[in-house]
Specification:
The complex is a heterodimer of chains A (about 700) and B (about 160). Chain A has about 700 residues and is of the alpha+beta class. Chain A is built from 17 helices and 24 strands. In chain A, helix 15 crosses helix 16. Chain B has two domains: about 70 residues, Ubiquitin-like (UB roll) (Roll); about 70 residues, DNA polymerase, domain 1 (Orthogonal Bundle), CATH 1.10.150.120. Helices cover about 35% and strands about 15% of the residues of chain B. In chain B, helix 3 crosses helix 6. Classes of the chains: A alpha+beta (about 700), B alpha+beta (about 160). At the A-B interface, helix 1 and helix 15 of A face helix 3, helix 4, helix 5 and helix 6 of B.
């Protein structure tokens, strides 16, 4: 073990454990008002007229007419308005905001507003959508020839559902005008995303915008794009009121109206010759919802990962993101990868079953290794540790033996065990780091010889404050209590990019490491010093072209093997997870406790994704599962035996050899869970979530 | 006027009997350690100890607590038991985003108060009303087990 891997007490521990940490809902400002949205009750409609009641003094209605800048929210595209102009595109589209001092009075005003809609025909089924927001395709090898020469062709379609991030702290912000400037503070992952969006919406000069992250109660992608949206709306309200305006969502509002993981439909066609997959033709469709938010980037990651960890030399992949009149989807941990990795893992499993061969052996025969081409004709430049990870997972779980044992079971209780092999591309897709993000990081040494980390990376629970501080303390050889890492404030920190894409430690951590090395050489005790570092693109990469999807989409990859063992009660259709084992390579761990915590948390989220987390719409496009009573996430009772283990393949460009980690555990568990369920039920499953109801339906069908 | 004992001190509140204890703690007494995660008794982020029972304070009407004893994280964090527990949480880095943690600490306290030598199953059951989306629960379960060992005699 490297010395840096040894865990320390987390920097944010004391404040959080004692209840003293202030989240945005805990902050009260003088003269602060509250906001609440009037949301569309129609999935697609033209707004003919809005009738307002008498509104008492001190209360305001804020809408499209109040937007001083451009009525556009800058995410990647700018198709979402701050407030809709004359049409609404999903149930929940924020028509206007009522602002005032008392929440009950705000509620009363909202209930008395009458909106006259001209209803239009909405589209809920992505298959019926004829609006493709984004269309991509790429190919390599000779796919047509592979299919012509195939001795067997297997086609199957896989579907995945929405997933709600379900951070325990809902989205919430405060906007306040002061001295001709606008400050927005609160729960967020990406202060500079919010910064750019607010500047555009209110038309202020960038020097007059300040964004501050407060202690953030979980993000998982759900606070990547959404805070930009709410910040624009609140900043407009704060200008009109000329007072601070706070808006913290209640849980139902958060589940129904904030962005989620995209549902997907993936059709895989495989050419088989002599027992091997010789080609694949893959069609990927993501349901974007009503606006684009981050969908293009999500879809890019999804289609790049469509062939999983397998070396498919003849490959054609098409990706579409379609519009539906449902809540816009955005980022969730894994960012487009869990959908296609579910599909490819199930496809490889089902092909093996069709061919009557052992599915793990079949996967191993197709696995990539160092030097192989990636799906996009880049290269796996570094060691691929899957073989030793499979062995470790087998040792921990006894997978191979149990797989044999669980064949042909009878009786009420039936066990199953499943396995999945996945990677996660570390950092932004393609040349995003070089061309768009251009990360800057600073270290400020104070006269008292404390050192402050000045970056825009946020700690939302994943431990950034601790791991970054460890890098600085270790490199400089100073005590960690001499290192300061305050919540980012755009007045004080440069733009080091967003806290997303498993990039923070690998990319920005490396800048901080370099800055610390420089500071060490230049160190002058008792003096103030500032060191600034800029992103440098690794020089070993095959340049990536986003138009042709050709080249190295990622500089390196994190790897994971997941095994899940479960037992189905065929009378009640309940499924108990008996064991869950995850083996991970994320390069050198920068703190083992933090790393295991990340892997375990992600593992459980993904088991939830596979088994219980479900969003359904009614015929009007209203989400039915809008509370923790109906949108069920795992509790402490659901997966009692979860084991995580680490294999280290250090990465030359990462600090101490670290690679991306945060998203990896969300990519693989779903197909391992379904593989196990198939092992127990002896059926074929092609969608998630596969809930207790699905199991019951299946059992009733076989009983017929 | 509703009188009750809050973190060891007798207090009175002018809240309506139908107001939620959570809102009164946060707004009237400015004790913001109890968090609102769902406001329907599902997540446990607002857990407090009411007359030696763990409750979701969003589900407790003020009219029902006359004469009762309420302990929030602000009061609990001044106790020796808290110190043992928080050291155990620190040792295994069980705190991630922290939003569930005040409630989780009070749930931990009740587990150990009811059974100083809990099994892992007891611990998992004891925190099953407190949702955590970050940790997968392993570290929290481990921390409570460590506290049970380190805090011998305190519970």
């Amino acid at each position: 073990m490297e010395a840096i891997s040894k865990s320390v007490k987390k920097m944010d521990h004391d404040a959080k454990v004692s209840g003293q940490a202030l989240y945005v809902d805990d902050i009260i400002m003088d003269d602060m008002l509250y906001g609440k949205m009037l949301r569309s009750t129609k999935a697609k409609a033209r707004i003919k007229n809005i009738t307002l009641p008498n509104i008492s003094a001190g209360y305001f209605v804020v809408d499209k007419n109040d937007v001083p800048g451009e009525n556009k929210i800058h995410v990647v595209e700018e198709d979402m308005p701050v407030f809709p102009v004359d049409t609404v595109e999903y149930v929940g589209d924020p028509i206007l905001m009522v602002v005032g001092p008392d929440k009950k009075e705000i509620g009363k005003i909202l209930s008395e507003i009458v909106v006259d809609y001209e209803e239009l025909e909405p589209v809920f089924d992505v298959r019926k959508s004829d609006v493709s927001f984004f269309h991509y395709n790429y190919a390599k090898g000779d796919v047509d020839k592979a299919f012509e020469e195939a001795d067997r062709i297997i086609t199957e379609t896989f579907e995945t559902g929405h997933q709600e991030q379900a951070y325990l702290e809902t989205n919430g912000l405060i906007a306040y005008p002061h001295d001709g400037r606008m400050t927005v503070r609160g729960s967020m992952q990406c202060p500079y995303y919010v910064f750019g969006a607010v500047a555009k919406a209110i038309g202020y000069d960038k020097k007059d915008i300040q964004i501050i992250q407060d202690v953030t109660g979980g993000g998982f992608g759900g606070k990547e794009d959404y805070p930009s949206i709410l910040a624009c709306q609140l900043a407009v309200a704060a200008i009109k009121a000329n007072k601070p305006v706070k808006y913290v969502f209640d849980r139902r509002e958060d589940i129904e109206f904030t962005s989620k993981r995209h549902p997907s439909i993936c059709t895989y066609k495989a050419a088989i010759k002599n027992g091997r997959v010789t080609g694949m033709d893959i069609d990927v469709t993501y349901n974007s919802g009503a606006y684009t938010t981050l969908t293009n980037v999500v879809l890019q990651r999804g289609i790049i990962g469509a062939s999983g960890v397998y070396n498919i030399t003849n490959l054609r992949v098409t990706g579409d993101a379609k519009k539906t009149n449902t809540v816009p989807n955005g980022a969730m941990r894994g960012f487009g990868a869990p959908q296609t990795f579910f599909a490819i893992e199930m496809m490889m499993l089902h092909i093996a079953k069709e061919l009557g061969v052992d599915s793990l052996k079949f996967k191993e025969q197709h696995m990539v290794k160092q030097g192989d081409a990636t799906s996009t004709s880049g290269q796996f430049h570094f060691h691929v540790p899957l073989p030793e990870m499979i062995e470790r997972a087998d040792q921990l779980s006894d997978f191979r033996k149990k797989r044999e044992l669980y064949k042909n079971q009878t009786g009420r209780y039936r066990k199953g065990i499943g396995i999945s092999l996945v990677y996660h591309g570390c950092g932004f897709t393609g040349s995003g780091e070089r061309d768009f993000i251009k990360a800057v990081a600073r270290l400020k040494k104070n006269a008292d010889d404390t050192v402050e980390i000045l970056i825009s990376i946020t700690d939302m629970g994943q431990g950034a404050k601790t791991t970054f501080s460890k890098i600085v303390a270790d490199t400089l050889g100073i005590s960690i209590d001499k290192v300061i890492f305050a919540n980012p404030d755009t007045d004080r920190v440069p733009d080091s990019g967003p806290t997303v894409a498993s990039r923070s430690l690998m990319v920005v951590g490396q800048l901080i490491k370099r800055a610390a090395e420089k500071l060490k050489v230049q160190w002058k005790s008792g003096e103030e010093q500032m060191i600034e570092e800029h992103y440098v693109h690794p020089d070993f990469l095959i340049p990536f072209d986003i138009n042709t999807f050709h080249g190295d989409a990622y500089p390196t990859y994190s790897w994971s093997v997941n095994v899940i063992e479960l037992e189905v009660d065929t009378l009640t259709a309940t499924t108990n997870v008996l064991g869950a084992w995850g083996v991970y390579d994320v390069g050198t761990p920068l703190d083992l406790n933090i790393l295991h915590g990340q892997m375990q948390g992600g593992f459980l989220q993904s088991i939830g994704y596979a088994s219980m987390e479900q969003i359904n719409y009614n015929e009007k496009g209203i989400i039915r599962n809008n509370s923790f009573s109906d949108y069920i996430i795992p509790t402490s009772m659901d997966v009692p035996n979860m084991v995580t283990d680490i294999i280290e393949v250090p990465y030359i460009e990462g600090p101490y050899g670290a690679k991306g980690a945060g998203e990896l555990p969300n990519v693989g568990p779903a197909p391992a869970y379904i593989d196990a369920l198939e092992n127990a039920l002896e059926n074929r499953i092609n969608h998630i979530p596969y809930t207790q109801e699905d199991t019951m339906k299946y059992l009733q069908e076989v009983a017929k | 006027m509703i009188k009750f004992i809050l973190n060891g001190e007798e207090v009175t509140s002018n809240a309506n009997p139908n107001e939620r204890l959570l809102d009164v703690l946060r707004n009237e007494f400015r004790l913001t350690g109890a968090k609102c995660g769902c406001k329907e008794g599902e997540c446990g982020a607002c857990s407090v100890i009411l007359d030696e029972k763990l409750v979701n304070s969003c589900m407790v009407a003020m009219g029902s607590i006359e004469g009762s004893t309420v302990m929030t994280i602000e009061g609990y964090s001044k106790t020796d038991r808290f110190t043992v527990l928080e050291n155990a949480y620190a040792a295994v880095s069980a705190v991630q985003c922290g939003f569930c943690i005040p409630g989780m600490m009070l749930a931990s306290e009740r587990i150990l108060a009811e059974n100083p030598n809990p099994t892992e199953e007891d611990i998992r059951r004891g925190i099953s009303g407190n949702l955590c989306r970050c940790t997968g629960y392993n570290a929290i379960v481990e921390a409570i087990g460590i506290a049970a060992k380190e805090g011998k005699g305190l519970w």
